[in-house]
Amino acid sequence: MSSTLVSVNLVGNSVLALLHHPDELSWAREHGLDSNAVDELLRFDGPVQHTVRVPLKPVQFVVGNRTIDVAAGSRVLTSLGAASHDPSVFAEPHRLNLRRSNANKHLGFAAGIHYCLGSSLAKMEAQVTIDSLLRRFSRIELSGEPQWRDRLTIRGVDRLVLAVAR
Asked: At residue 30, what are phi and psi to the nearest 5 degrees?
């Protein structure tokens, strides 16, 4: 994925998440976003929701009482967004908590050899952009319904109209 595409959607998704969670928005205004808070925003509604993997050799997964065999060369759609909401990893996974102690365990940038090389840049861009927005405007509100991009792999708002005041 392009860093620009991920960064733009990370900012849009994050601003929308903060607007829907006024307590977290107040905390972000008071304390600013740190790396952990950006990780939580990525975990909560990151732009990269799915990715495709192709195993080089046969793989077997055990899910509950089922065994799933995946042949070498098969295309596997992974849901990074769902993994970042796993209740066995994240307490109250559907709640935004900018102080979540294990927020960095999200899979918003994948993991291992597939970890996104542009992750640090995307996180820094989001942190600076959102902090600047919160410092510059004392009031930020939605002005209309967000319009979402129609893409499977990238989740993001295509149009996010805000009403702001200094």
From this structure: -75, -40
